[in-house]
Design goal:
Elements lengths: L26 E6 L4 E6 L12 E5 L1 E3 L3 E6 L4 E11 L2 E7 L6 E4 L5 E6 L5 E5 L6 H7 L16 H7 L7 E4 L11 H9 L3 E7 L3 H4 L15 E5 L1 H12 L4 E3 L2 H9 L10 E5 L15 E4 L6 H10 L1 H13 L10 E4 L1
Parallel strand pairs: 1-17, 3-12, 3-14, 4-11
Antiparallel strand pairs: 1-2, 5-6, 5-8, 6-7, 7-10, 8-9, 9-10, 12-13, 13-15, 16-17
Length: 341
């Protein structure tokens, strides 16, 4: 299957550069798969599409402020993006700028670190502190926003730390937000619960697997990076009961879909799981756990748009994206929401 199949032209002005405030008043594009109808709502209208007994599954991962500015002791500034923790105070990272093995660097708050491995694209950084570096990240780090969100200075730092994080974020570990969940407010979640809708949580720490670009023209040759996910016994029980009773289950975001599919048996029931997944979902994939999704509008040629196309078809995906562009929806991480029912 050719990578260009998942390409489309997006005017730059439709790439959302900042969050919609309040988040639950962004726009909601609703696509009905059965009759191929489209409706345009605001996000908090999602409650109209939920019924008592329905189950929503959310990803409760928490984004860490993993983007750091540092200076080499020998001089020169570098940028660091923490990717994955190896052990306490030791991380895989990307480094922007020239770096050599065993380079010592200085950070804010008089913190120091050493780049102890420079082989390959991923480096290894070790922080020279007895305390856990995560205690300092919210002071010295910035949110790891995707490169299409432009920040000339730190004027949006406080805003990003609040809005590039879900209101139910709990377990630290992501270097990107599960963006479909950014639209929910605490008040909206309360209203959803009051309607009799159940909410369950999985954890999938968003890493390179989610946002790494596909570089092979034949998409089947693309290799996903592994990402850690966890499904508790409680969530598995709630989900399996809902499935057994044939109730509507709405996964919020591609990360939830990937976690559920990774933990599922052939009949679509899931088991408590704590593992890494490199599942790659593209057209032709047979879903076992879901038949709808709440998501955002994704980058051209990304594994995320491929997952959506696997669910609703390539032609329908392009149809929806074309209509969204015509209606000037906001795209990508801080963009508007896309509900498939």
């Amino acid at each position: 299957m050719n990578l260009d199949t998942f390409d489309y032209n997006l005017p730059k002005e439709l790439i959302a550069q900042k969050p919609h405030i309040p988040p639950d008043e962004c726009r909601l594009f609703v696509y009905n798969k059965k009759n191929k109808s489209i409706s345009h709502k605001i996000f908090k209208d999602i409650i109209e599409f939920l019924s008592p007994g329905d189950l929503i599954v959310l990803n409760n991962t928490k984004v860490i402020p993993a983007k750091l500015s540092a200076k080499k002791e020998s001089g020169g500034s570098i940028g660091i993006l923490l990717i994955e923790q190896i052990e306490k105070n030791t991380y895989y990272c990307f480094v922007k700028g020239k770096i050599k093995h065993d380079t010592k660097i200085n950070l804010a708050k008089n913190l120091k670190a050493t780049i102890i491995q420079t082989n390959g694209q991923k480096k290894i950084i070790k922080f020279d502190t007895t305390n856990d570096i995560r205690e300092y990240l919210y002071e010295i780090g910035s949110m790891p926003l995707p490169p299409y969100i432009k920040r000339k200075n730190k004027e949006f730092d406080v805003l990003d730390k609040q809005y590039y994080q879900t209101v139910f974020a709990e377990i630290e570990g992501s270097i990107a937000a599960p963006t479909a969940s950014l639209h929910f407010t605490s008040n909206l979640l309360d209203q959803i619960k009051q309607k009799g809708v159940q909410i369950a949580y999985i954890t999938l720490h968003v890493g390179l697997g989610t946002f790494k670009s596909v570089e092979t023209q034949n998409i089947q040759e693309h290799k996903m990076h592994e990402e850690y996910f966890e499904i508790s016994a409680k969530t598995a029980q709630i989900y399996n009961k809902a499935k057994l009773e044939n109730r509507n289950i709405l996964p919020v975001g591609t990360t939830v879909v990937r976690a559920l599919e990774s933990a599922s048996n052939d009949k679509g029931y899931i088991k408590p799981t704590s593992a890494k997944t490199d599942i790659f979902i593209y057209p032709g994939y047979k879903f076992k756990t879901v038949n709808n999704i709440l998501t955002n509008f994704h980058l051209p040629k990304s594994t995320l748009i491929m997952l959506v196309a696997a669910l609703i078809g390539i032609e329908d995906t392009h149809f929806c994206y074309k209509k969204a562009i015509e209606e000037k929806y906001r795209f990508f991480s801080y963009g508007d929401a896309f509900l498939v029912i």
